[in-house]
Amino acid sequence: MRITGGLWGLRQEINRQATIPLGLEQMERSGVLSNLRIAAGEASGDFQGYRFQDSDLYKQLEAVAWEHARQPGEPYQTFAEQAAALLARAQRPDGYLNSHYQLVKPDRVYAELEWSHEMYCAGHLFQAAVAAARAGLAPQLVEVARRFADQMVRVFLDGGHDGVDGHAEVETALVELYRLTGERSYLELAAKLIDNRGKGLIPETGLGPLYAQDHLPVREADTAVGHAVRQLYLEAGVVDVALETDDESLMECSVRRWEDMVATKTAITGGLGSRHDGEAFGERYELPPDRAYNESCAAIASIHWNWRLLLATGDVRYADLIERTLYNAFAASTSADGERFFYVNPLQRRADLVEDAYLGRRRGWFACACCPPNIMRLLSSLGHYVATARDNALYVHQYMPGTIDAGEFAVSVETDYPWDGRVMITVTRAPATPWSLMLRVPGEGYTGHPRTWQVGEQAELELDMTPRLVFPHHRIDALRGCAAIERGPLVYCFEQADQDVEDLALAEDAQLRVVHAELPGIGRTVLIETDALRVTEASQGLPYTPHHLATSTGTTATAIPYFQWDNRDGGAMRVWVPLA
Amino acid sequence: MRITGGLWGLRQEINRQATIPLGLEQMERSGVLSNLRIAAGEASGDFQGYRFQDSDLYKQLEAVAWEHARQPGEPYQTFAEQAAALLARAQRPDGYLNSHYQLVKPDRVYAELEWSHEMYCAGHLFQAAVAAARAGLAPQLVEVARRFADQMVRVFLDGGHDGVDGHAEVETALVELYRLTGERSYLELAAKLIDNRGKGLIPETGLGPLYAQDHLPVREADTAVGHAVRQLYLEAGVVDVALETDDESLMECSVRRWEDMVATKTAITGGLGSRHDGEAFGERYELPPDRAYNESCAAIASIHWNWRLLLATGDVRYADLIERTLYNAFAASTSADGERFFYVNPLQRRADLVEDAYLGRRRGWFACACCPPNIMRLLSSLGHYVATARDNALYVHQYMPGTIDAGEFAVSVETDYPWDGRVMITVTRAPATPWSLMLRVPGEGYTGHPRTWQVGEQAELELDMTPRLVFPHHRIDALRGCAAIERGPLVYCFEQADQDVEDLALAEDAQLRVVHAELPGIGRTVLIETDALRVTEASQGLPYTPHHLATSTGTTATAIPYFQWDNRDGGAMRVWVPLA
């Protein structure tokens, strides 16, 4: 799929013009390239940043590669070639590559995998290399990746080293590198790393074995736990290995955890991870809107996992969750101008914050900069997640304007989704044999049947875009007595820029009015206006009384799409609003 | 006040017979005494435990001293004398005393106050010494304390060192030592330390300046923030200094923060601190029942602060909060047998915990053992917090059986409170001049007027013990749509041992029935039985739907006093129950 316009076309353009250049600048400023130059013996100085600093470059390179595939040209091509050459020079003769360990702890290579992120960084290198190969860019990157992967195979597969990286990531990357190269030992190593997890092979870090999903063997764990991004990257690898090795029990355990996670641990935005401490999932139904972590990387990792499950099963529920995550948890991670990022994505920001004043405001970069380049690589490769083809059927999972080429069958898509529900698909290439054009109806499934198509023929889908109130499951304590507004794939929120948010309440039968608008700082949007209530309650002494003391008066309120929040001010925001 | 029976008399007896002996044993087992022996040059080995390990002994000694005052005897007297002698031998010639810094970092004394806890430990030593002096026990302890305090005065007051300990505690202790000794430089040092806070003199720890209340000068801060125990110990010192120096603006700032804290940051149990990360207060109205921290030490520190405010102002609201905290947040911190302790006191424990399985169960001891000896010293000194006398008036703030001696006026108290609301007070000594017997009616104030009393005359108070539903302020998002049960000073909870807790709901007009009972593992109690509802709701796919899907059926439910939870099983518990 080539995206040519609409919300995501604009986002891709901003990503190319504003976000990626900002990221490339940070590769110098935050010491990422300097670390590698020192490791290559071409510069002097101290290692800068976290021990996983190399991974910033790898994700950045992956974004550059996918950009090259979308639209070849400078300065991205030169950056990729120079970076690949630098990596080749920094790489040890045996293939190992990690600037932190080479510079700071050369005698501790693979000796402290619980925290080292060595395999995690390697995984991001492999993913960048696969992207470069698919984009026809910087072939040296695949050479570097293969030398490193071969070294890992020698140590961890042939050499009998049973180490497991505390941060899963390399598993899915190894399978991708296997798919690219056909080198089966990469797949075998991925399978071994997955089966080694949960056997107590990861030394205690002080955060407990759940943090790194080492509490139970992968096949036995029923629920997503611990550090959310670790769990989610692990799941992508689990599905990859299960698919490539036809391992049904491995696939089943991942689906089982997916079902549990969706039913009990997923925010309405698709956000994942309820806790700041340990950046962890938390307990079932523990879904606080204010203290939710919902790391941007977790949304991206969730899309990776769901995409693999969708490819493996064809089940629409994975495409549904990708859409929810994409338009809400993921889309919110970047400002409208593409220059500021959320690391944490809560569903509520109170007024007059004291301890959390730093939260709920996007920032230009982070000392731990895992999220921004992760956002960039997903945006650059977003076209990959839109459609699939199989058995003379084209499945369109997401709706955005552009062209989808499935070989002998191709279509163009015109739509103003998510602002409007109409999707018009025009066949641009068709064989004489029948094809099915399978269009996803969110929450329902795929509609379509085999038929022969003429070039120029059109199929039209009209998705219901009536705004709706939604209510939480009764076990979600933190959302009890509240409702949220959705329209199409978009979750809405109330922001301080439009009204006082703290004491707002909605009637259960509130009429929701759709208003198309163009807002300063935000751009194109669809607002939801509604009659609402403003609650007043004295607050002196303890806030617990034998009588309900709150009273309310009528007002109106305006909601904006959640992903567009914090583009105007730093005020209060809430997705879930009390019912009157 | 000498407590002679009832709930708190029993608790004091268990404290003496079971808890303190267990603590003394831990002084050996956890290396506390060994550290000091090594510092005294009488043993060899490595320092064990946290850098504030000495403070465990000091709090333990304080408990032993108050026990000696209640009932002199062995083995407590010998323990205290031997410990005081050991401390004297371990103390540096210049008066400095801290086994961690003397053994591990002798060149870093007072050089890393942001984390060192040197003054914090000193404060606990001073408090133990004051207790010992008042109990007529181990006079060597006051000598040790004075030598250390004099050294601190030389360094921080005369020497111009502007350091501030990251953990407030020494301020209130210095004022107590001043009260005992009349040495004014201790008071001056306490005042200086308080005024130095909030000036950026505490180096950054990575947790931000709010963590240690260094974000604003004490007089300017409007709300309690950061590490709850630090804030609360600081407030005790603030009130002490304000009172002793007649500093009105200092007193006012503490009262201002108290009012804000009570209205927006206090759990119904009196628990304080909403966050695991940073053991912090959190934002206004951020009061999650499940992830509340409510450290046992915070409840104790709150009682210290409230007691000082009560002494300074005579305002009944401080006595009310002491009662709430005492019977709920504090009482819950110890098991019925006195041998297990909570560090964290949440108001909800879910069923089938995975990540939090370690929470919501009391434990025998902790690596960071600040809470258990803190509990012991408050229990041993509980009689101090019951009554005050002034201007020929005896104020009785809390109701427990025993004798109150105000010099020329004395009474005995008979009551079965909190199980029953009747309080009978008999005058046991009275002068010819009129005295007022001022009895606190919770939430209302003090009742009484001057009159002459005859020995043997009685006053009776009948407190309303009708159980009641209470509702949270509408801004407390985490408790919306819920109610809790209270009876007298007791907050109630529903525990898994009595029924399935997860799907329970209450009608807003639920009839609450009082049942006196004796339960295995718990002992004497008063249960509340009520008609209730059991909610059923399908849970597949995302837990957000456009329609309310929950249905409910009738059931009955039994609540027990919150402080008695976790004495039977490790199951679910909740204080706040959804309204049907």
From TrEMBL, chains A, B:
SUPFAM superfamilies cross-referenced by the UniProt entry: Six-hairpin glycosidases (SSF48208)
Domain Non-reducing end beta-L-arabinofuranosidase-like GH127 middle, first and last residues per copy: 394-443
Record's Pfam families? Beta-AFase-like_GH127_cat (PF07944), Glyco_hydro127C (PF20737), Glyco_hydro127M (PF20736)
Q: Which GO terms describe its biological process?
A: carbohydrate metabolic process
What phylogenetic lineage does the species belong to? Bacteria, Bacillati, Actinomycetota, Actinomycetes, Streptosporangiales
Instruction: Indicate the segments forming the Non-reducing end beta-L-arabinofuranosidase-like GH127 C-terminal domain, all copies.
Output: 467-578
- The secretion signal range is none
Which protein is depicted?
Answer: Glycoside hydrolase family 127 protein
Give all residue intervals belonging to the Non-reducing end beta-L-arabinofuranosidase-like GH127 catalytic domain. Answer: 2-383
